[in-house]
Structures are given as C-alpha cells and as structure tokens.
Amino acid sequence: MKRVIYFYPKGCCDVSIKEKLRKEEINVIDVRICKYVEIDAYENDRITEILGNPLFIGGKDSFENLFFNARFWESHETLEEKWKIEKDEKKRKYLQALILLSASMVKYCKGEKEVSDLLLEKALSFISELPEELLPLFYITFCLNP
C-alpha cells in the first residue's frame, strides 16, 4: 500500500477523525491541522467515501512551495532526502536547521507546543553556527521567495 496525504479544508473535521477512520479499519498514520486538515494514511478509497473528495493529494514539490503553503511534513521529508546524501558538513547543518524548523511547525500544528519550542531552539542553534556566507541563502529562501 502507498502512503499518501489527503488535504481537506480546515474546519471539515478535527483530530478526532483519526480515531473515527481507524474504527473503520483505515490505516491512518496521523492527522495534522494547520492551513489544511492533513490525513496521512495508506491509500484507501474509503477515506474519500467517508469525507468526500480532498482538495488535493500530496505530491512532490519544492521545499519552498511546500513550506510556504504550510505543508510542513512534506517540506521536512523533501529536505531529509537531500540531507541524507549531502557530503558537505556545512550544507548538512543548514539542511538540518531547515528540517528542524519544518518539524517544529509540524509539532506546533499538532498542539505540541513544548516539543515545537525545543525543535525551534535546536534549529536556531544550528542557524547561529552557520558560516556567514550561508546566511544570505537562508534569508533569500525564507524572506525573498515567499
């Protein structure tokens, strides 16, 4: 079975949908609410039978598009793929900071504010350790390309 993220409009349901779908024997990994209601599950037509058609189903996109559209789980996953193969330690630290920032937002959207704060603190510590020549890349990515 293929893992997918179904995106529904915010307000269509709350996090209790996770247990409701599980009671229907649907393999739901997680539910996150931010800009959208994200139902992270193994592909199953019964989800759309119960909730209707999603706005869209997650797919590959750039980190910037994912992050700025509040699709933090996917932005985290996208960067993790790059981080795993990156050899340059400075670039790895840069990517790790962005991964932690995305992960912090995932936790925040799930209401886990203390965990979110810890991850954000760790991301900021990595950012503070970045060489000065990488800082403009950080600012361009987050401030000039929304």
Could you explain how this protein is built, in words?
The chain is an alpha+beta fold. The protein has two domains: 3-57; 63-144, TTHA0068-like (Hyaluronidase domain-like), CATH 1.10.3450.10. It contains seven helices and four strands. The protein has helices spanning 17-23, 45-51, 63-68, 72-85, 89-109, 113-128, 135-144, and strands at 3-9, 28-33, 36-42, 56-57. A four-stranded antiparallel sheet has the order 2-3-1-4, covered by helices on one side. Helix 4 packs antiparallel against helix 5 (89-109) and helix 5 (89-109) packs antiparallel against helix 6. The radius of gyration is 17 Å and the shape is elongated. The N and C termini lie far apart (34 Å). Mean pLDDT is 89; it is low at 142-146. It comes from Sulfurisphaera javensis.
Looking at this protein, list some descriptive labels.
146 residues; alpha+beta; disordered C terminus; DUF309; TTHA0068_sf
